Amino acid sequence: MSSVFRLPAEWEAQAAVLVAWPHAGTDWADRLADVETTYVALVGAIARFETAIVCVADAEVRTRAQALLTAAGIVDNVRFVDIEYDDTWLRDSGPITLARADVTAFKLTDFRFTGWGGKFAASRDDLLVEGLVERGLFANADHKRIDWALEGGAIESDGAGTVLTTWRCLAQRHPEQNRAEMTAILAGGLHARRVLWLDRGYLEGDDTDAHIDTLARFAPNDAIVYQACDDAADSHHAELAAMADELAALRTLDGKPYTLHALPWARPIVDEGRRLAASYANYLIVNGAVLVPAYGDAADARAADIIGKAHPGRTVVPVPCRPLIWQNGSLHCVTMQLPNGVVK
Questions:
Q1: Gap between the Cα atoms of 304 and 92, Å rounded
Q2: How far apart are CA 96 and CA 104, in angstroms?
Q3: What's the predicted TM-score (pTM) here?
Q4: Of the residues 100, 287, 313, 324, which has the fewest C-beta atoms closer than 10 A?
Q5: How far is the C-alpha of 31 from the C-alpha of 10, rounded, in Å?
Q6: Could you tell me if 227 and 40 are in contact, meaning their C-beta atoms sit under 8 angstroms apart?
Q7: Kind and range of the H or E element at 194?
Q8: How many CB atoms lie under 10 A from the CB of residue 186?
C-alpha cells in the first residue's frame, strides 16, 4: 500500500548526505586541522555524486569550511546550514527518515539522543532534528519525536522491513526493558516487520556500546557485510568469530541464509596507549558509489574490494579516516543520508 511507511535501505536513492563541520568548540579541538583534512575529503567525495549538506555552528565555522573546500576545488553540490551542535556524529543525532511506499511523504523520526547513554553532553545534539525542521530543510515530511533513546548507528535496515541491531547497545540504553519490549518499540517506531538481534561483537575504543554500523551492514541481494578478525592472538578474535556464527544463523524473510562478506582486520592502531576502533564496516553508501574507510593499513585495499563487490555497480571511493577514529568513530558515524524527495 502506498500509505505504508518504511525505513529505506541506505543503497536506495538519496537526496543528500548530512554532515557537521568540526570546530574548536567540539571534541576535535586538539586535532582540528588533522580532522578537517578528512572532512574535506569526505565532503568532496559526497559532492561527486550528490548534495553534501554541511551543518556549521556559526559564521566563522562556515567561512573556514568554505575556504578549505574551495581551496580543494569543492564548490558544487555543497549546501550549508547554520545550526548549533555539541559534536559531529550526525549518524546518531540526525533524523532517521522513514519514507512512504510511493516516496511522496516522509517521517523524520527523532529519537532521544543521550550522548551514548550519558557519556557526553548532548543537549544541543538532541535538538538537531527539530532545528533542521525549523530551518526549512525538509519537504513533504512530518517531524515525529519519540521519547526513547536510540542512535542511528545502532540500527541497520534492508529496506524491506527487517532491522538489525545489537543487544549490548540497547540493553545499556534501556536496562529496565527486556528484549520483547524493545523489539516492540523498534518495530513500531521504525515501521519494521521484524527485528534481528546480535548478542556478540564489539570493538575496543568504541564508546557506542557496539553500534551495529561498526560490526555488520546489510547489502543488496540478501547480503551482510561484517567485520571479521583473522588474528587468533587479537583480543577481538573470539568475540567477532562468535558474531560471525550468529550472522550465519540468521535467515531472510524467505527463510534463506544471508550471503556473508567478511571484511579483513586492520593491524592495531594505538594512540597514546589507547587502541582505536578501526572498522571497515563503517562505510557510507551514496548515489552510484560507496565511500570506504582507509586507515593507512595494508588491509585497506582488500576491504575496499570486498565492499565494492557487495555493492555491485558502484564506484568505490576510499576516504582517509584515521583522524576520525581518534574520537572513537569513523566514516558512517559522521554522516546521515537523506532519502530522495525529502530535502526542500
A1: 24
A2: 16
A3: 0.97
A4: 313
A5: 30
A6: no
A7: strand 194-198
A8: 21
Q: For the beta carbon of residue 264, count every other beta carbon within 10 angstroms.
A: 18
With residue 53 as reference, give the H or E element that holds it. strand 51-56
Which amino acid would we find at residue 344? Answer: K
Task: Give the bridge partners for 56, in sequence order.
Answer: 82
**Phi, psi at 198, each rounded to 5°:** -105, 135
Q: Read off the C-alpha cell for 5.
A: 511507511
AA letter at 182: M
Q: How far is 199 from 328, CA to CA, in rounded Å? A: 21
Q: How far apart are CA 159 and CA 165, in angstroms?
A: 14
Residue 189 in grid coordinates: 517506531
Give the angle 91-93-83 at the CA atoms, nearest 5°.
110
Average pLDDT, consecutive stretches of 10 residues, N- to C-terminus, the chain (344 residues): 84 98 96 98 98 98 98 98 97 98 94 95 96 98 98 98 98 98 98 98 94 98 98 97 98 98 96 94 98 98 98 98 96 98 97
Q: What is the CATH number of domain 5-339?
A: 3.75.10.10
Are the C-beta atoms of 91 and 151 separated by less than 8 Å?
Answer: yes
Q: How far apart are the C-alpha atoms of 265 and 120, rounded to whole Å?
A: 29
